Amino acid sequence: MRDVMLDNIEKVLARGERIEDTVKRTDEMANNALQFKKAGVSLKRTMWFKNLKLWIIIGVLVVLLAYIIAAIVCKSPIFKGCWKKNPTTTPSTSAANSVAPTVFVFLLSLALPMLFSL
After folding, report:
1. Rounded to whole angstroms, how far apart are CA atoms 108 and 71?
2. Helix (H, G, I), strand (E, B) or coil at 13
3. Alpha carbon distance 18, 26 (integer Å)
4. Which of 75, 88, 94, 96 is deepest in the core (most CB within 10 A)?
5. Cα–Cα distance measured from residue 115 to residue 56, given in angstroms and rounded to the nearest whole number
6. SS3 for 118?
């Protein structure tokens, strides 16, 4: 009877040690999970800002390209050649002047959806 009691006590102590080990591992896993979550949030934020910078750069380049094309078509860096009403224009120059704003608006309509598709 005494041997059985000692055996049971040893089993209970061994079980307590296993429970303590399990609790310790659980705490370590919880800490690791918290660190992983923080690292994930930080990485997500970093990648979002890199993506934002990329879209800003692309947007600026598209607007700059549209400006350059419009300036070339209008033959004026401030677009006076496109919208100036000239009563002495012939139909061929009038048609050329009306194409430039259309091209500019078309390029701008292509650029805006790319900028807002973040």
Report:
1. 14
2. helix
3. 12
4. 96
5. 8
6. coil
